[in-house]
Specification:
By secondary structure, this protein is mainly α. The chain folds into 2 domains: 116 residues, no CATH class; 283 residues, no CATH class. It contains 18 helices and 3 strands. The protein has a 3-stranded antiparallel sheet with strand order 1-2-3, covered by helices on one side. Strand 2 and strand 3 form a beta hairpin.
Length: 443
């Protein structure tokens, strides 16, 4: 009975670690690998881990002729907190290296989950506003467009926060955000300010676009988790469809109010000059990390990485090599430097990777493709193919850079023969509790 209780406690700790990793945006392979690492470090053998988009499962079969013990955990709440992710990453490493017992790890994990966010909510809203302004600057917007992008991002975040408190599904939150962004653009047009309405709408909706989910889906598909990848793709498409519905409703309301936009092409953009692109990339990458509660010590390296990746993207694009190759080149750079940067600032590489590629994400291409398909235009399919190409280029470029920068260790290959891909969260290897006990006894 005592042995069964220990098994239950080990599986519960592993599942709770996996829940926080998955809710913070970690890939399915990383989540499964770290659940196995925790279980293995606590002395549990013959254990398996399975990850889907909304459920985690672990099973332990002590003998081949005995029934397996299975535990499940639902993952419904998704609130990215890179501060908590960093603390859990350090916790996993302490468990693996034998510096923390299972009971101590459970207590630390409970404190992490219950301690709340490290920043006040107004600071997060300000971070999203800076992110919108940075992307507006990248996309060739002038001072008016950049200011409107900041105001729209702040207003959208405040609106979605209120809707979340009322438990409104995320699709309707996206509809409300798209409508609000269009109404803000309508207000700008009504004032007679000389600003490109298409750029205003595009910059205003940038916060709502689901490029991160789309890229995460491609990553899961590349490393052998098609079920989770399909769920993430569906989530990204539904979120973007909500934005399209909101923008369409906002445009209809503007016409009722006799606000003349002139020719409008939401999703259209042109890139700024290279120095402004790099500056916009730095601001958007750093602001996204800040709004996601990344440790403050990591913000400057993330901004620098985002600036260099965006500048490299612009340089390749100027050579007429295509947006996919430009995205892959920028992502390759991020993958190459992510582990060294993450090691210096003591955060998981996932934080560096996701934040630095935010300026390169294909959210606008997804939006344009779905909007054109909704209007019956055949060019919408081409835009969707382009968005998929960019997402694949980003994911494959990041992974290739990580493979080069982080060679797999022999022990990790034995432990993770099914889990291909470099780890972006947690350590590679484990030391079993039995080995730690034997080494401490010999001393």
């Amino acid at each position: 009975m005592a042995e069964s209780n220990e098994t239950y406690q080990t599986l519960d700790l592993s599942l709770r670690v996996g829940e926080l990793l998955l809710s913070s945006g970690a890939g399915a392979a990383d989540v499964a690998a770290q659940m196995l690492n925790v279980a293995y470090a606590c002395g549990l053998r013959r254990v398996t881990a399975d990850v889907t988009f909304t459920e985690l499962a672990m099973s332990h079969q002590p003998q081949y002729d005995e029934p397996a013990l299975i535990q499940l955990r639902q993952v419904r709440h998704r609130d990215i907190d890179y501060g908590d992710l960093t603390l859990v990453d350090h916790l996993i490493r302490d468990v693996v290296e034998g510096r923390c017992t299972r009971e101590e790890a459970s207590a630390r994990l409970a404190r992490i989950v219950s301690s709340g966010h490290q920043l006040p909510r107004w600071a997060v809203t300000l971070g999203y506003g800076l992110m919108g302004a940075g992307v507006g600057l990248m996309l060739g917007g002038d001072a008016v467009v950049t200011l409107v992008a900041f105001v729209a991002a702040v207003a959208i975040d405040l609106t979605q926060r209120q809707l979340t408190r009322r438990r409104l599904p995320s699709f309707y939150q996206q509809v409300a955000g798209g409508m609000l962004a269009t109404l803000i653009a309508s207000a700008v047009a009504a004032t007679g300010v000389n600003a490109n309405p298409s750029q205003v709408v595009t910059a205003s909706i940038i916060l709502l676009l689901s490029g991160v989910n789309f890229m995460g889906a491609i990553q899961d598909a590349l490393i052998g988790y098609p079920l989770t990848a399909g769920a993430r793709i569906l989530e990204a498409i539904l979120a973007t469809s909500g934005v399209i519905a909101g923008v369409s409703g906002g445009l209809t309301l503007a016409r009722v109010l006799n606000i003349d936009f002139g020719p409008l092409n939401p999703g259209a953009f042109s890139l700024s000059d290279l120095p402004l692109m790099a500056l916009g990339g730095a601001i958007s990458a750093g602001a996204f990390a800040f709004a996601s509660y990344a440790p403050l010590r990591s913000l400057l390296p993330i901004a620098a990485t985002g600036a260099v990746a965006t500048a490299l993207y612009g340089l390749v694009l100027e050579r007429d090599l295509g947006v996919a190759w430009a995205s892959a080149t920028g992502a390759l750079l991020v993958g190459l430097v992510s582990y060294s940067v993450a090691g210096r600032v003591r955060v998981p590489a996932l934080i560096i990777v996701v934040s630095a590629v935010v300026p390169l994400l294909p959210g606008l291409s997804i939006f344009r493709g779905l909007a054109q398909l909704a209007e019956g235009s055949e060019t919408g399919l081409l835009s969707m193919v382009n968005a998929a190409a960019v997402a694949i280029a980003l994911s494959s470029g990041v992974f290739l850079g990580e493979y080069i920068a982080q060679p797999l260790k022999r022990e990790a290959r034995r432990l993770e023969s099914r889990l291909a891909g470099p780890r972006m969260v947690g350590p590679f290897h484990t030391r079993s509790a039995r080995r730690r006990r034997s080494s401490s006894t010999s001393q």
